[in-house]
Design brief:
This protein is of the alpha+beta class. It is 25% helix and 33% strand. A six-stranded mixed sheet has the order 6-7-8-3-9-10, sandwiched between helices. Bound molecules: adenosine-5'-diphosphate and magnesium ion.
Amino acid sequence: MAQVKLQNINKVYKNGFHAVRDFCLDIKEGEFMVLVGPSGCAKSTTLRMIAGLESISSGELHIGDKLCNDAAPKDRGIAMVFQNYALYPHMTVRQNLAFGLETRKKPKDVIERRVNEAAELLEITDLLDRKPGQMSGGQCQRVALGRAMVRKPEVFLFDEPLSNLDAKLRVSMRMRISRLHEQLKADGRPATMVYVTHDQVEAMTMGDRICVMNKGEIMQVDTPLNLYHKPANRFVAEFIGSPNMNIMEGMLSQNDNGELAVVLGKHRVALPASMQAGLVNYVGKPIAFGLRPEHIDILDEQTGLDATITEVEEMGPEAFVHLNFHGYSLICKRVNPESPLRRNSEHQISFNMDKCHIFDKETGLNISLPTC
Ligand SMILES: Nc1ncnc2c1ncn2[C@@H]1O[C@H](COP(=O)(O)OP(=O)(O)O)[C@@H](O)[C@H]1O
Ligand SMILES: [Mg+2]
């Protein structure tokens, strides 16, 4: 039983800085939960409170059924993997892997078996007699992961473990960690994993669920696809997805027939029928209109909204086209573009309004989500 439950957790540092505010999160047993957010939003502080490396100012932390606010790190059933590997430089890989078990006075044969098992799974058997100085960053990080694994913790905590690796290695380590999570589940000993990153791609590809944080507060907790398609607020909408969601500040208006539209400068763009009823109270109020790059089309015909191309980034199978739409800077994603587009050319564009989001300009809340 190793669910991790954070109830109204606060962290106020000694200098009075309130780093984490009323943090409530239920991480299920065997779940892969990612904490993601910009640098400084208190991801590490939160993880370190779970690990017992940082004190909790108020609130309750349960790991399994135990209240762990004051439990020593070694009694929490956790193992942590850090960005800087934290291997002992004077020890071989084998000694690094075995060290934590030796200090816990595990029998020699158990230690040997676990070290060999972990080494095999992580494909570092060939490296067992090397020292950290004789290995690459990716190899060191596999050892660091192995050192956490041999302890057979119920909860793995990762703090940006891949940030020091180059892009290609990051992808392969990402898959390795995901596979390890699946493997442990298949073996009937599921491990709860809490993974901190500032990289939204890492979060999207690894998490069963993702907790998006900003300034020490939770913005939304949901599955990767729900965060993408149903962001609860403007912060999540802009943080998840690359290139970023386009945001245009405007107003909501209603015509004589009672139909709602978004007013962007001198343009009125009708809202889909599904959004009409829910937004009627916002008529005349400032809003932010959000549309993902793949939901803007560049048209061949002359019947859309007029825009000027300011930049074209050709990526091969797709192109990111930067547009100036009456002073709004937009990015549009074109898949398999047949004809290249030129900078400074005038085009007609259209918005896929069924996919748009409307945010309250003041609170940032997504007011266009269907209420159920
Ligand atoms: N010991 C400390 N004393 C005071 N403020 C701190 C301390 N450690 C971190 N902070 C502040 O708390 C905030 C969150 O830090 P951190 O948890 O490291 O963020 P993240 O991991 O998301 O980048 C930052 O503003 C940071 O400056
Ligand atoms: Mg950090």
